[in-house]
Amino acid sequence: MLTIQNLTYHPPATPAPILKNICLELRDRELGLIVGPSGSGKSTLLEILAGFVDWREGGIYWHSQELTPDHLQQLCGLVFQFPERHFCGSTVLEELRLGHLDIDSDRILAALQSVGLGQLSFQASPQSLSGGQQRRLALGVQLIRQPGLLLLDEPTAGLDWSIRRQLLTLLKELKQNWTLLVVSHEPEELKGIADRTWTISHGELVPDPNPVLM
């Protein structure tokens, strides 16, 4: 279970904290959804949870163990908004093997199958894939790392209606085996698959009083 207790993030260059006294609990194999407009602090929270940003006030815990940024980098996998902009490999195989040069083909294939890309050629260029396939590939890249917590920043942004529906179905399937935390400013579709929902505004996180427990 993920627990955040009284987390505040106030960079020296900003006049006010970006995140204020954040408290959150997310159980294993749940999908949590944080809803808020651009600039509300939701992406910053994901970057902290991914271990990219240090904080000074409050604690982050996984199954009651307090975590440092180094721990979080090992625990969490972050799928960025528009992850296709971050692809570095010239082929699907290269992209999946980045940082895992000794990984075997069976594990790579298992990751692709888990995101519905089992028939995809290892030699295909990530940039040649459709928008939906690129989002799935980005998920597969993180699943290879076997993260305890999967973080997704605006996973449906820029996708058309039919591809969004396919991605929502995939996220619902993934939470059978993974714990997911998603942030979005377009929550309508995602609320239907979320177990817990929060709203963030001006760095303050408020839980939904009527969570949907699926």
TrEMBL record:
Superkingdom of this protein's organism: Bacteria
Record-level GO cellular component terms: ATP-binding cassette (ABC) transporter complex
SUPFAM superfamilies: P-loop containing nucleoside triphosphate hydrolases
Alphabetized InterPro entries for the sequence: AAA+_ATPase (IPR003593), ABC_transporter-like_ATP-bd (IPR003439), ABC_transporter-like_CS (IPR017871), ABC_transpr_CbiO/EcfA_su (IPR015856), ECF_ABC_transporter_ATP-bd (IPR050095), P-loop_NTPase (IPR027417)
Pfam families associated with the record: ABC_tran (PF00005)
Keywords per UniProt: ATP-binding, Nucleotide-binding, Transport
Gene Ontology molecular-function annotations: ATP binding; ATP hydrolysis activity; ATPase-coupled transmembrane transporter activity
Domain ABC transporter: 2-214
Annotated family: Belongs to the ABC transporter superfamily.
Protein name: ABC transporter ATP-binding protein
Biological source species: Tumidithrix elongata BACA0141
